[in-house]
TrEMBL record:
InterPro entries (UniProt xref): Globin-like_sf, Globin/Proto, Hemoglobin_trunc
UniProt-recorded name of the protein: Group 1 truncated hemoglobin
GO MF term set: heme binding; metal ion binding; oxygen binding
Organism: Neptunicella marina
Keywords, sorted A to Z: Heme, Iron, Metal-binding, Transport
């Protein structure tokens, strides 16, 4: 009798638990809008202190880059945004970004995610979404 009750209770908790915890989007796992904005601010801070990458941004308007990158990350992570900026190819054409530069920017993004306290599985999920963009960014 007790055993049946315990099993019944366990099943109820498990099913209830499933119903109450729908799968989170990557955007939510990044901390939503606040989390994405903090991540981009940490990323800009990383770029600002980096000798290899900073020169690419020397003529850029950082407030415009910030808004565009936030919107792009929000859209890429299934957040409630639509990216309205130029394509990755159009933006990065003429920069001649080398493979090593791209890899270094990824490292800076990882540093920024560490600074934000984003957990490794969430970091990996975001990097997996950005990796396919590589060919549209390098050697253009
Ligand atoms: C996964 C990698 C990358 C992603 C997702 C990405 C995404 C973006 C986006 C969305 C913007 C537009 C922001 C706006 O609206 O102004 C942008 C701008 C820019 N990106 Fe990237 N980017 C990546 C890698 C790189 C790399 C490797 C470099 C150089 C080493 C770079 C250099 C720049 C520069 C200089 C701008 C500003 C252009 C301007 O001032 O108009 N990006 N990027």
């Amino acid at each position: 009798m007790w055993r049946k009750c315990v099993i019944g209770l366990f099943a109820t908790i498990m099913l209830g638990g499933c119903q109450n915890t729908p799968e989170q989007t990557l955007y939510q796992r990044l901390g939503g809008q606040q989390g994405v904005e903090k991540l981009v601010d940490n990323f800009i801070n990383q770029i600002g202190h980096d000798k290899q990458i900073f020169h690419f941004f020397a003529d850029s308007k950082i407030s415009h880059f910030r808004q565009g990158f936030i919107q792009h990350l929000c859209a890429v992570s299934d957040g409630p945004c639509r990216y309205t900026g130029d394509s990755m190819v159009d933006i990065h054409t003429g920069m001649m970004v080398k493979e090593g530069d791209f890899n270094h920017v990824v490292e800076l993004l990882i540093n920024a995610m560490d600074d934000s306290g984003i957990e490794t599985p969430v970091q990996n999920a975001l990097l997996a979404r950005l990796a396919p963009l590589r060919s549209g960014i390098i050697y253009r």
